[in-house]
Design goal:
The chain is of the alpha+beta class. The chain folds into 2 domains: 31 residues; 145 residues, Immunoglobulin-like (Sandwich). It has 4 helices and 9 strands.
Length: 199
């Protein structure tokens, strides 16, 4: 290869490296000033699950996206009381995880823990746990109660996509999960121990 050719290849490589570097620098302020909770606000309001896009900027609102899964997110605020979460987790593999405001997961479970393929849980503020243990409501209530370390956070439902033809159905199923305020606290029971979360 001639010296001219080598110089040309090196020049192109340097230009591409510079563009990548500039692009990453431009993206730093957004990720430095906005945590996962703030970035998910771009999807829509709190109290509802919204499926993340499979491609484009909206697909990268959260780090470490796995294209083999569809993901739906719901932001929550416990200022006005606990929230009830319900989701269907198919046996092909589904998982639900609860995260604090900065994105750190503090509870997770998979379809293996789902009764009849459905998971129901309640998320409470730390200060509400003692009061919840004093209540004895007659109607059926979630059997899993989780104390959130922060007043705000988000819940993720992640469903494995066995094939591209199944992706639309999995997106709809993930988005059909519910995440709503509840006026009733869950029944007395032992505190749910956080399940191990893979890094």
């Amino acid at each position: 290869m001639s010296l001219t050719r080598v110089a040309y290849v090196l020049a192109v490589g340097l230009v591409l490296a510079g563009l990548v570097h500039i692009g990453s620098l431009l993206g730093v302020p957004r990720f430095a000033t906005q945590g996962p909770f703030e970035r998910l606000a771009e999807l829509g309001p709190e109290w509802r699950f919204i499926a993340l896009a499979d491609e484009g900027d909206a697909a990268n609102l959260l780090p470490f996206r796995d294209p083999a899964f569809v993901t739906a997110a719901c932001r929550y605020d416990l200022t006005d009381g606990p929230i009830a979460v319900e989701a269907v987790l198919p046996s092909t593999y589904g998982a639900i995880s609860v995260h604090n405001r900065t994105g750190q997961p503090f509870y997770a479970l998979t379809d293996r823990a789902a009764a009849d393929g459905r998971v129901r849980l309640t998320i409470l503020a730390q200060d509400d746990v003692a009061a919840a243990e004093q209540e004895d409501l007659a109607e059926e209530r979630p059997k899993i109660r989780i104390a959130s370390p922060t007043m705000t956070g988000f819940v993720l439902v992640r469903l494995f996509v066995a094939g591209e033809s199944a992706r639309p159905a999995m997106r709809d199923l993930a988005a059909a999960a519910t995440c709503a305020k509840t006026t009733a606290s869950p029944p007395p029971s032992s505190e749910a121990d956080p399940a191990p979360v893979s890094p």
